[in-house]
Amino acid sequence: MAMSTDLSQMRNSHRNVPIILLLTAGLAIALANGQDARSPGKPHIIIIMADDMGFDDVSFRGSNNFLTPNIDALAYSGVILNNLYTAAMCTPSRAALLTGKYPINTGMQHYVIVNNQPWGLPQQEKTMAEIFRENGYYTSLLGKWHLGMSQRNFTPTQRGFDHHLGYLGAYVDYYDQTYQQNGKNYARGHDFRLNLNVTHDQVGHYVTDVLSDAAVELIEQHSGSNSSQPLFLLLSHLAPHAANADDPMQAPAEELAKFEYIRNETHRYYAAMVSRLDRSVGRVIDALARQQMLQDSIVLFLSDNGGPTVGEHSSTASNYPLRGQKNSPWEGGLRSSAAIWSTEFERLGTVWKQQTYIGDLLPTLAAAAGIAPDPDLKLDGMNLWSALKYGYESLEREIVHNIDMDPSAPYLAYTRGKWKVVNGTTNAALFDGWLGERVTREVDPRSANYEELIRNTSVWQHLQLLMGSQNERNITSLRQQAQIECPEPPGATKPCLPLLAPCLFDIDADPCERNNLYEDYRNTTIFLDLLQRIEQFASQAHAPNNMPEDPDCDPRFYHNEWTWWQDEQASGAAIMWSVKRLNPLLVVFVGFWWIL
Ligand SMILES: *[C@@H]1O[C@H](CO)[C@@H](O)[C@H](O)[C@H]1NC(C)=O
Ligand SMILES: *[C@@H]1O[C@H](CO)[C@@H](O)[C@H](O)[C@H]1NC(C)=O
Ligand SMILES: *[C@@H]1O[C@H](CO)[C@@H](O)[C@H](O)[C@H]1NC(C)=O
Ligand SMILES: *[C@@H]1O[C@H](CO)[C@@H](O)[C@H](O)[C@H]1NC(C)=O
Ligand SMILES: *[C@@H]1O[C@H](CO)[C@@H](O)[C@H](O)[C@H]1NC(C)=O
Ligand SMILES: *[C@@H]1O[C@H](CO)[C@@H](O)[C@H](O)[C@H]1NC(C)=O
Ligand SMILES: *[C@@H]1O[C@H](CO)[C@@H](O)[C@H](O)[C@H]1NC(C)=O
Ligand SMILES: [Ca+2]
User: Fold this and answer.
1) pLDDT tens profile 577-596
2) Rg for the chain (alpha carbons), in Å?
3) Which of 137, 216, 225 is the best mutation target for the ligand 2 pocket, counting ligand atoms within 8 Å of the beta carbon and taking the most?
4) What is the DSSP string of 448-502?
5) CA 452 to ligand 5: nearest atom
6) 448 Cβ inside 6 Å of ligand 5
7) Which residue of 42, 79, 354, 519 shows the fewest CB atoms closer than 10 Å?
8) Residues 555/190, Cβ–Cβ less than 8 Å
9) Are 322 and 365 in contact (CB under 8 A)?
10) pTM
11) pLDDT, tens digit, for every residue of 414-437?
């Protein structure tokens, strides 16, 4: 069962009282000033999501290794979400985004959906796309889905999206859009569709560009005859996720040429993949501006989880200076580099330190559109719209990052306010270190004129135009504020070995999780309260939906396409499929019988 965590039900409620007063006061002042006079509109919602991008792989945090001028221009013009938490992997993160619930409450908490496994986001879960569609939005998903495809009913156009161009599984080749299942003898399958139809038109074209082109085209179409309909666009990029194991790093030659100063080839490709993603952000914002839609849009950029520095799909991503990486309980797996922009925000050009959860985006963006989600949905996400709009950061909240009770490697990560509890870990603790670095020996030549580069972007210029009387931004200062400081904790630090005992961190003072306070706090009410709360969530968790592999998914049975194989089998067209599975002698026999 889902747990509701709206403000009124949160523990420590004494801390919330002044906050609510503050919010109410802020609202009253804003109303008195007439700033809120126009009726609540339905802004276009544009979410651009990177896949597996590291925390330090945007340059607005200070890295000059390779620059992301468009993302940075969006960040400095809007609000940098310095404490946005996602899940640590693709499937749970996307489930939390689209349902507004913790993965433990939808059964999406363990690992990801591997393409050959017959499971998906449960049908009874209502998605953000459904909610926006019911409220008059045209809803489009461009790119990755990864919430189930073994049945047609799991796929995006059956889950609230009017439109989908992209792939259903975990990732594809950047050029031919195929997926090869690791360690299996399946045929290499193509995975790219327009709505329910397979499309091969994109073969040979770089996916980041295919998706950007589609976004630009959609925005152009949308601004014409149907401009009165608000647009909900989730541009769910492949970049900079690694592609198939036989050719994981892929980028256009012209993009690579910008990064010749990076000697490590893998890292050079990674920089180019991120850079092409950055270009996509610029193209989308340009298109919105050209079509006069930008002033009515909320634009959000985020990564679905931390970058994989080592292990599967590792790409040289860096979550510096945070601990851990993708698929781990540490901040490096959970904190996203994210920024949001809207003319509605009172305090554009700021770094927002409020803790936010990816599941907050559903109720928060819904509130921006005047939509009140049905309370029966029992969302875990909180509506932070007023806080975001007026720039308050004092809401104390809890976040259940994960409680994965899988016996192979049980672990949990939970935060309330400044306290974070970790118990157990993933991958035999191989992802538990401080894995990413900030490369300073190789510097993007454009960083010599960094501020001018940012101010020269069309993104900066479009967004500045719409800012009205707001003060001139101090880019240097914002870039410093977005940097995570990890001072050496005072005194001797105690290490955390989460396979041996639980760990407790003061994440405000120690965002790099270096000093384990468990021994000092283990008998205190603070810690025992946290454990009790975790136990409550654990006892009410939805059983994981994971299913073992089903070899019937093999693309060789379906013209080398990844498809909803369970439906295909159920339909008559599957006769040949079942024949193929019999042994060759039987096939001959059946063939002979057919001739007779
Ligand atoms: C999908 O394929 C069907 C059947 O071939 C066709 O009628 C339909 O127009 C196609 N839809 C798109 C969006 O291409
Ligand atoms: C806009 O309307 C046209 C038909 O006039 C339709 O084909 C198209 O899908 C619509 N696009 C959006 C984004 O609503
Ligand atoms: C590039 O960097 C990665 C990650 O640090 C490393 O594993 C790889 O060996 C390096 N490649 C070369 C050619 O040095
Ligand atoms: C920590 O995890 C271990 C292994 O799952 C478990 O036995 C132990 O009870 C947990 N400790 C707490 C305090 O939850
Ligand atoms: C910024 O744009 C101006 C005018 O086009 C150009 O002269 C200058 O070189 C650009 N600066 C950077 C750092 O790109
Ligand atoms: C911008 O901020 C930096 C760092 O805080 C400061 O040194 C500089 O004086 C500021 N520049 C302006 C124009 O205010
Ligand atoms: C907490 O309790 C345990 C066992 O009850 C005891 O061994 C330990 O010394 C106590 N720790 C502190 C910091 O009081
Ligand atoms: Ca991911």
Assistant:
1) 555 555 444 444 444 444 44
2) 24
3) 225
4) GGHHHHHHHSHHHHHHHHTTTTPPPP-HHHHHHHTSPP-PPPSS------TTTS-
5) 13
6) no
7) 519
8) yes
9) no
10) 0.91
11) 999 999 999 999 999 999 999 999
